[in-house]
Write a structure and sequence with these properties.
By secondary structure, this protein is mainly α. The chain has one domain. Helix content is about 80%, strand content about 0%. The chain has 14 helices and no strands. The longest helix is centred in the C-terminal third of the chain and has 45 residues. The protein is globular.
Length: about 375
């Protein structure tokens, strides 16, 4: 006997649709539209304010334009090589994390994924969240399980955060005595917390236990939505209990994350040398760490406008001339932002075409679906 599956369900769906059409229009999307409109206005205001701010900080425009008349181009080539090395190192330590789950991938497999996800992160406000989802889907296409993909993404983020905090601590340690006394205790505390957070992902059972305790405490006071999130996180963490890298692997990945930041800092160093500016060695790492903090602010894509203005300010605080600081910042962003953005979207296009070809090949190999009775 043939059952009409469309019957009651179809009539109910059409009735609901009719009520929606005849009655009031649902308002659930209006706050989202207002939120998006407010964000666009905020981004435009930030970018509109950044350009004159950078121009004013540049000081004498004649000196600023003269800076570009005597560029040392060989440092710019070193800058590009250092940025390529930085993105390769990022792919390398992500490869080591995925190998913990016995996923047979190489750095060459992950390099286009890293470049593409970086482009996604640099193209959207709070783009790191979108980039993690994009990279997770690419990991699954490479054969990673859901648990392994999530664990690798979270572990890589925790290790990268800890490594950047270590760079900031090193910068505070070598700066002048005044700033050292102010910043070093705070940054050392942040660094210790980041190391503990990264170590928790090395032992997922301990993290699941901590989440369980937080869930039991939250059930009394926190809203149901928070409890559901904690419960989902605890269940996901339990799936990661089989990923237990050795201390050697974990410390190697932490060193790889630190080398990734150091190579990117070399790009800023080469930007200063390209325009012939003096390098503020005592405050150099602090300037770089401050720029990376501005990149992560979820206001404009990739910190566009914020990094340019903020980095010029901190460089001038360390006695770099305003015109030289502005020119060096623009050279740094030309390589670390615009160059990676261009290469990354080429990688996105290449991955999209490759994945479509793979899907067509898989569909052709499976053959036509059998007709149902």
């Amino acid at each position: 006997m043939i059952v009409d599956d469309e019957g009651d369900n179809g009539r109910r769906s059409r009735a609901v649709a009719g009520q929606t059409a005849e009655g009031a229009v649902p308002t659930t999307h209006r706050p989202n539209r207002r939120h998006r409109a407010a964000r666009v206005v905020l981004e435009v205001l930030v970018l509109a304010a950044a350009a004159p701010f950078v121009a004013l900080r540049a000081g004498n425009l004649t000196k600023f334009s003269a800076t570009f008349d005597h560029l040392h181009w060989h440092w710019l080539f070193v800058s590009v090589a250092a940025e390529i090395g930085s993105i390769t190192m990022l792919s390398w330590f992500q490869h080591r994390l995925l190998r913990v789950g016995d996923l047979p991938v190489t750095v060459a497999n992950l390099l286009p994924v890293t470049m593409a996800s970086n482009a996604v992160a640099q193209s959207l406000p709070a783009g790191s969240l979108f980039a993690e989802g994009y990279a997770f889907r690419q990991y699954q296409r490479l054969g990673a399980s859901r648990a392994l993909g999530i664990w690798a993404e979270l572990s890589a983020g925790a290790l990268a955060a800890a490594a950047l905090a270590g760079v900031a601590v090193a910068g505070a340690a070598v700066t002048g005595p005044g700033l050292r006394l102010q910043l070093l205790p705070i940054l050392a505390f942040v660094f210790a917390g980041a190391l503990v957070a990264a170590a928790l992902f090395r032992r997922a059972p301990l993290l699941a236990s901590l989440l369980g305790r937080a869930l039991r405490g939250a059930q009394r006071l926190a809203p149901q939505g928070v409890c559901r999130l904690l419960r989902s996180a605890q269940e996901s963490t339990r799936e990661m209990e089989c990923f237990r890298p050795s201390w050697g692997v974990w410390l190697t990945c932490l060193a790889g994350a630190a080398l990734n930041w150091c190579l990117d800092a070399v790009v800023l160093l080469m930007g200063l040398l390209t325009v012939g500016a003096p390098v503020p060695w005592q405050g150099f790492l602090l300037c770089y760490a401050a720029a990376q903090l501005l990149v992560e602010l979820p206001i404009t894509p990739g910190g566009l406008g914020l990094v340019e203005g903020g980095l010029v300010v901190v460089l001038t605080r360390f006695h770099v001339a305003a015109s030289s600081a502005t020119a060096a910042t623009l050279m740094y962003r030309a390589v670390s932002y615009w160059f990676l953005l261009l290469v990354g979207w080429v990688a996105v296009l290449w991955l999209t075409l490759r994945n479509r070809q793979a899907d067509r090949a898989a569909s052709a190999a499976s053959g036509p679906a059998p007709a149902s009775a």
